[in-house]
């Protein structure tokens, strides 16, 4: 199977799902009902799993960009005979603005072809494949609309150029001339829902979608350092938000591997409490936190009442709990990397760090949670109690190890964070006796980490109690306030991590990690800023910012040898790291200026 490099794709979103479009004009991924639904275009994972391309017939080069402050992609193709632009958008509901975008998106993919100069011979290839490529649909044409129906899925394509149906695909050729416009609209609807797929005019869809995204961006005007990078990352993270619930998925794809040919090919189209909480913290800097109560209420409802069992750490976008993993063994996999997985068995794990991440986000947004709803109060109290009772237990850690559980230092630190923030909340979430219990446990955790997390032989805080192995997850220690970044041991840890695990600015999580992990690299930049090393922090940040693809997007990891992005895409965690580092650099610069 040809490698369709993940970083060669642009990202479209509509508050329900996402589409990926490569630089040759091929839609290689789209799951129209919602992020974790079966794909109708899945060529990202198998050449025969469906795609929709619009591109020049002959040789061409392409440049692309987002229209300002909008997830609307414009690709300009240059050929020997002329130039042509293809503009792509997943439709927002007409008239939707600000925080209402994505709530009622019509599930429409619109494509507009505009001749710019000369004449360019163009080709359309439309090959939908339902159920992750398992099902080829019957294509029929009526009144200029091509219908594809199979199983629970129904697509309708309206094009203003003639298309010829052959089997389960349709093709067409046309000429784009300077000043010409050609419209394509693809609508989705469930087969038995009764409603027809929407087929609005493509030009109107693009205009409305641009207006909708720009109205959202206007509410979220970050003014710190690296403004353009932060605004682009905030927009990407918003694009991974399932608007009806407010939940943020970790990534738009499944089974893009950490290493080509490897088997760590997981499905990231779900909501991790860790990622969700860090997203809220990041968007607090890059966006207005007007929906904090709604988002925390979603977490409380998704979690339900929790007793002594481990807190569920991940959910479907509407709060589903059972995300059992299974193999799509009919697919060849990204660049031949198998298995191709749907679902993610990490939902069964104990990951103690999520307790601190949720409470830390709540503390940051405390003023926006006032008055606090009973659901949110119960959620925060439950998480604090879990940290008090369970901090001493081993867990799978934030890297979701599928082997034996361990006493990960970062998990202990985040339990301390949970207890510390609960104590600060005080009577807003607990009785005086509760606060006293949480404070005592907080001090126990701190003492344990300082005594058992530090490895004198290694000269650093290591990944787990009693371990000699370095782990970049300990970089959260200064970011949550457990230790100042300038602390002697913390500085020694940061320096050793950089020397042993970093290459060309890319920091691996641990020895044996196949590539640099983007958020860890940004955490190091944030830690350097907190330690007062602003010049080093800025240099590292700028090297990392230059590693994004041409649209400013990141996958999960980057190979320092090839520069190739790896892992699911776009990765919310990576963009959260950028926003966090930019904010810490901005804060450190302000402190430095005020101390002069």
Automatic annotation (TrEMBL):
Q: Give every GH15-like domain span.
A: 225-582
Listed InterPro entries: 6-hairpin_glycosidase_sf, 6hp_glycosidase-like_sf, GH15-like, Trehalase-like_N
Task: Report if keyword Metal-binding is assigned.
Answer: no
Please report the stretch or stretches of sequence annotated as the Trehalase-like N-terminal domain. Answer: 5-158
State the UniProt keywords alphabetically.
Hydrolase
List GO molecular-function terms, semicolon-separated: hydrolase activity
Domain of life here?
Answer: Bacteria
Q: What is this protein called?
A: Glycoside hydrolase family 15 protein
Lineage in the entry?
Bacteria, Bacillati, Actinomycetota, Actinomycetes, Micromonosporales
